[in-house]
Structure to design on (320 residues):
């Protein structure tokens, strides 16, 4: 089976078990193939946990869920040294972060030390305990979730930590047709009629090979310039639009430029294309920049959302 056929089979499998969340499925695959992490925000019960769990079923990978709570400690995530009295030494006990796919459920319910421990592991791909450093698996993806409804007792992620996420995905309730399909699926699962995963789980070697194919995808200089100008417009909005200048306090960092390039390439590859177009950039730009723009007090007072700001960015930046 070719690499593209393997990924398409995985996508088709996810679509049969995750109903009404096509956007989430696509963004999960983008994060996986672009070697990044994603933050998913949505109400409870929208299959966020199930999505990454089913992704692990279709991959040659292991999965662990961490439920973030206010009393969680950094060692509960990373692991810690355990004293062994039989030989008088300390031995490192790996924490749940040492898995290929990790779900950080309700990340904003954990205090800052725990959040920083997780985000350091995400950025550095390693964990330091005492004088020792331990490498995380080569295939490593963190999906963190936030519940936007109930904010009491939460610790909002600072902007600098949000920047570590490749994508920030918003998901909403399914429509009526999808809701009916969900009922049928759940009834079938209760009768042990769970859809079977792909006959051959996608190997890690396939994932790494696809990542190389994505990096080799052709991107014209004009598309590169379009990406750069979108980021520049977020940093110097006054040069493009005065209304935009009143909305944006701080623009995207160079991580935003890199993320937009990687995600546009991956999106184009998933569409079966062998080149990247401005349409591919526009398809992912909202999820890439949503958490990287710091809006002004005036914009927040007017009820302006990042979605509207990014729409305006797209409208004022010309395609080269």
């Amino acid at each position: 089976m070719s690499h593209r056929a393997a990924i398409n089979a995985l996508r088709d499998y996810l679509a049969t078990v995750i109903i009404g969340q096509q956007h989430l499925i696509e963004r999960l695959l983008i994060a996986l193939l672009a070697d990044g992490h994603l933050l998913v925000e949505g109400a409870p019960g929208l299959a966020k946990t199930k999505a990454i769990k089913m992704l692990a079923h279709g991959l040659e990978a292991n999965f662990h869920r961490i439920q973030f709570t206010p009393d969680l400690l950094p060692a509960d995530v990373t692991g810690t040294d355990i004293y062994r009295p039989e030989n008088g030494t300390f031995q490192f006990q790996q924490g749940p972060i040492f898995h290929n796919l990790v779900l950080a459920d309700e990340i904003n319910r954990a205090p800052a030390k725990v959040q920083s421990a997780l985000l350091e592991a995400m950025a550095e791909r390693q964990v330091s305990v005492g004088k020792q450093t331990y490498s995380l698996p080569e295939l490593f993806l963190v999906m963190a979730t936030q519940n936007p409804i109930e904010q009491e007792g939460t610790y909002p992620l600072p902007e600098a930590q949000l920047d570590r996420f490749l994508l920030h995905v918003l998901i909403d309730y399914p429509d009526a047709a999808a809701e009916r399909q969900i009922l049928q699926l759940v009834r079938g699962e209760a009768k042990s009629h769970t859809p079977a995963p792909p006959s051959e789980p996608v190997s890690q070697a396939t994932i790494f090979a696809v990542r190389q194919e994505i990096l080799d995808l052709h991107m014209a200089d004009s598309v590169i310039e379009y990406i750069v100008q979108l980021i520049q417009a977020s940093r110097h909005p006054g040069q493009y639009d005065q209304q935009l200048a009143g909305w944006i306090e701080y623009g995207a960092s160079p991580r935003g430029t890199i993320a937009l390039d990687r995600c546009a390439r991956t999106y184009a590859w998933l569409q079966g294309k062998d080149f990247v177009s401005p349409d591919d950039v526009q398809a992912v730009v909202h999820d890439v920049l949503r958490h990287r723009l710091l809006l002004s007090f005036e914009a927040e007072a007017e009820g302006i959302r990042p979605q509207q700001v990014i729409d305006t960015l797209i409208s004022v930046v010309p395609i080269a």
Remarks:
- Residues 217-316 form a domain with the Helicase, Ruva Protein; domain 3 fold (CATH 1.10.8.80).
- The first helix runs from residue 3 to 17.
- The longest strand covers residues 79-84.
